[in-house]
Write a structure and sequence with these properties.
Layout: H1 3-16, E1 33-38, H2 43-50, E2 58-63, H3 74-84, E3 90-96, H4 106-115, H5 120-128, H6 133-137, H7 143-155, E4 165-171, E5 178-182
């Protein structure tokens, strides 16, 4: 069972001792912000600390690279739900230096999949079905450009209200220093 048993044992004690009380808040972000960032483990505690965020301050969406890779994908849907249903008024896309998605090699990733039991026939079937799996696995070369691209995808989305500010930043995963790449301005969505 691996790590699951350790988590469950700890969780039982956490609940019994009511340690959850210090984290209680509502589902609405107090700072009215939704953040899209990378799933990098170095950012789990560093990013909120570097931004002076506590539990309940922000909606934080994480994926590999902090990317909006498709305007109708689940990341964009989550951002829109945070705005329309949960009261977010600003969006921050925060990439980071030394990201694992930078210069990822899709062929090497496919090789790792095959070595772990995915058949070449499965990959062929996906590609035959019209999925460009290498493009789907590809990350980016430059984190600043990647952040700019995701910011533009969000800003120009037709369902974005025009009064939402969309910012782009890059964080140093060693020091927590934030650099502004795109200072938010009102979106271009929801117009005529």
């Amino acid at each position: 069972m691996g790590f699951l048993r350790e988590i469950l044992d700890y969780n039982k004690q956490f609940v019994e001792q009511e340690e959850f009380r210090e984290f209680q808040t509502t589902k609405y972000p107090d700072k009215k912000v939704v953040i899209l960032t990378c799933m990098d483990a170095r950012l789990t505690e560093l990013l909120p600390k570097a931004m002076n965020l506590k539990n309940g301050d922000a909606k934080i969406i994480k994926n590999a690279g902090g990317l909006v890779s498709h305007p109708l994908g689940s990341i964009m849907r989550s951002i829109l739900v945070a705005i329309y249903e949960l009261g977010a008024e600003e969006v921050m896309v925060i990439g980071h230096h030394d990201c694992g998605m930078a210069n990822i090699n899709p062929d090497e990733t496919l090789h790792k999949m095959i070595s772990r039991g995915v058949t070449e026939q499965t990959i062929f079937t996906l590609e035959y079905s019209g999925i460009n799996i290498r493009k789907w696995l590809r990350g980016f070369e430059n984190v600043s450009d990647s952040v700019k691209k995701s910011v533009e995808t969000i800003r120009k989305h037709p369902l974005m209200p025009p009064n939402v500010f969309v910012h782009g930043l890059v964080i140093d995963p060693h020091t927590g220093k934030l650099d502004v790449i795109v200072e938010g301005k009102q979106t271009e969505g929801a117009r005529g």
